[in-house]
């Protein structure tokens, strides 16, 4: 029922008809399921069903996430028969690196090709507190935020959990070369993670598991544009994962201009869901607020925002947005950014301005132009 409602509501959101993938499909794509899609308990189950001992699952996880092998053949403490079974049933590599580019500040952008020919981006950001990977959850996006280039071609497909996990594994393999570790993960790349909820949850469970990538829950952040039923569901999971909402406007009218999803999920109901989340989990929420020159960045807007989020355990992340060619959004002048921040501070709200490294800056669910991403997220 909930899924039907979600589908119907999301259909209200403007999106362009699906097109062929830009890159030519491989002639004979290997469409085996990614081994990275499986949680430890699912792998144990699979082993049992296939006449193998369930304890082998922990050994396989060790090969995948600790030793980070690139072929099943390398899993030398497994029998040849089991390695063959794994090879017949699963793919160990579903992403191939098309290109990786490193910027001056150490940010590395990876362009990966999927088995069916689509390509996705993943970004490694270097911070003083560690290495953070920003993952993509969908090929394209159907949410339709007006400031986001990723939605212009609509949604092509959801990523499978394994395809999201493998993004982190691939980045970790690159970091292995310099003896460094992925310490943080942000689910803020292309796509709306709550529109691909089950895969996102499996991804979280695998990367957080001590036998998986063992990335602490408090080092993982998920961001949504505001799909209300999924916010309730996520709250009920009672995880310690950081949660961010792309808010971007202090009232319904302005929010639905910037983010058509707000027509389906009204701001008052959204704030109710956010209060439910903070009450249920005891955790704070991060409000992402992109400052678009002349649109949502006045001191009156800051006062309105303060009232909207009053009493909510939260933090506001102000994101000064540079020129957005699709909509002619312009940058908020520096003094106005500080004036906006000052109002929030005066009203007792915990606020930061996102530090910028490059000439471009992203907004959205922290997701605008992941390919240009080059800044701190917190
Ligand atoms: S900002 Fe995020 S949710 Fe909005 S259209 Fe872009 S990718 Fe989708």
Strand arrangement, largest sheet?
A: 3-4-5-6-9-10-11-12-13-14
Mean pLDDT score, rounded?
87
CATH class of the largest domain: Alpha Beta
Q: How big is the Rg?
A: 21 Å
Distance between the termini: 37 Å
How many domains make up the coordinates?
A: 2
* Small-molecule components bound: iron/sulfur cluster
Helical stretch tally: 12
Topology:
Elements: H1 2-12, E1 33-34, H2 40-49, H3 56-66, H4 80-89, E2 90-91, E3 96-102, E4 108-113, E5 119-127, E6 130-134, E7 138-140, E8 155-158, H5 161-176, E9 182-187, H6 197-208, E10 220-224, H7 228-237, E11 242-246, H8 252-258, H9 261-264, H10 267-281, E12 285-291, H11 299-309, E13 314-320, H12 334-346, E14 351-353
Iron/sulfur cluster binds next to loops.
Describe this structure in words.
- By secondary structure, the protein is of the alpha/beta class.
- The chain has two domains: 299 residues, TIM Barrel; 59 residues, DNA polymerase, domain 1 (Orthogonal Bundle), CATH 1.10.150.
- The protein contains twelve helices and 14 strands.
- A ten-stranded mixed β-sheet has the order 3-4-5-6-9-10-11-12-13-14.
- α12 links the parallel β13 and β14.
- The longest helix is centred in the middle third of the chain and has 16 residues.
- The C terminus is likely disordered.
- The structure holds iron/sulfur cluster (SF4).
- The site of iron/sulfur cluster has 15 residues, from loops.
- The site of iron/sulfur cluster (SF4) has 15 residues, from loops.
């Amino acid at each position: 029922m909930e899924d039907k409602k979600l589908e119907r509501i999301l259909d209200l959101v403007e999106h362009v008809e699906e097109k062929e993938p830009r890159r030519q499909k491989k002639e004979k794509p290997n469409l085996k399921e990614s081994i990275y899609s499986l949680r430890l308990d699912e792998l144990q189950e699979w082993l049992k069903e296939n006449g193998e001992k369930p304890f082998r699952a922990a050994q396989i996880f060790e090969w995948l996430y600790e030793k980070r092998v690139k072929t099943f053949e390398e899993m030398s403490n497994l029998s040849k028969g089991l390695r063959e079974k794994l090879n017949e049933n699963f793919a160990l590599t579903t992403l191939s690196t098309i290109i990786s580019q490193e910027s001056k500040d150490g940010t590395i952008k990876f362009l990966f090709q999927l088995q069916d020919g689509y390509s996705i981006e993943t970004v490694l950001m270097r911070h003083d507190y560690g290495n953070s990977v920003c993952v993509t959850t969908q090929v394209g996006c159907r949410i339709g935020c007006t400031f986001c280039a990723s939605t212009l071609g609509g949604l092509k497909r959801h990523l499978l959990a394994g395809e999201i996990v493998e993004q982190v594994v691939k980045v970790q393999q690159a970091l292995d070369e310099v003896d460094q570790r992925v310490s943080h993960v942000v689910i803020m790349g292309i796509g709306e993670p709550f529109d691909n909820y089950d895969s996102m949850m499996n991804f979280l469970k695998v990367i957080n598991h001590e036998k998986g990538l063992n990335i602490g829950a408090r080092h993982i952040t998920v961001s949504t544009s505001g799909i209300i039923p999924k916010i309730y569901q996520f709250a009920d999971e009672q995880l310690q994962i950081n949660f961010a909402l792309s808010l971007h406007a202090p009232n319904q009218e302005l929010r639905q201009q910037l983010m058509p999803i707000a027509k389906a999920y009204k701001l008052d109901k959204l704030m109710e869901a956010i209060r439910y989340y903070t009450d249920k989990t005891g955790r704070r929420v991060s409000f992402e607020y992109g400052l678009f020159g002349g649109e949502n960045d006045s001191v009156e807007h800051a006062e309105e925002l303060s009232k909207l989020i009053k009493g909510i355990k939260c933090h506001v992340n102000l994101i000064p947005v540079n020129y957005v060619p699709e909509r002619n959004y312009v940058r908020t002048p520096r003094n106005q950014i500080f004036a906006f921040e000052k109002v929030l501070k005066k009203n007792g709200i915990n606020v930061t301005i996102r530090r910028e490294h490059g000439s471009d800056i992203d907004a959205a669910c922290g997701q605008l132009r992941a390919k240009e991403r080059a800044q701190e997220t917190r």
